[in-house]
Amino acid sequence: MAKIYTWETTETVLCEETEEEKTVTHAVCLRCSYLTGKAKITIDGTEFDIGTRPMGLRGTNQMFRLGDQAAILDFPKKGAPNIIVDGEPLPRKK
After folding, report:
1. Which pTM value belongs to this model?
2. Structure confidence at residue 30 (pLDDT)
3. In which residue ranges of the chain is pLDDT below 70?
4. Can you give the pLDDT at residue 71?
């Protein structure tokens, strides 16, 4: 059975045309099953299949872009997955 994890973060970006700062919200949703190795991540509405072989997610990580920031999706050996941005884990939405 797949588990669903969600995160949300905000980022301040500079609009090049108006030179004004604006706040952008990024949403991430992960559906994964450690048993089957199936995993799909949705980043700001775009879905990616990041599945592996059965029992293959634990102990791995995936790098991706979250707006202008580099992020890591970490699947620890024990516990729930985390998203790490600038060395800090993002809090999961409840």
Report:
1. 0.88
2. 97
3. 1
4. 96
Instruction: Give the Cβ contact number of residue 66 at 10 Å.
Output: 20
CA dist 39 and 2 (Å) reads 8
In angstroms, rounded to a whole number, what is the distance separating the alpha carbons of residues 93 and 87?
Answer: 19
Residues 6+ apart with CB under 8 A from 42: 27, 28, 29, 30, 48
Give me the pLDDT at residue 91, please. 94
User: DSSP labels for 12-75?
Assistant: EEE-TTT--EEEEEEEEEEEE-TTT--EEEEETTEEEE---STT--TTEEEEEEETTEEEEEEE
- Distance between CA atoms of residues 47 and 32, nearest Å: 13
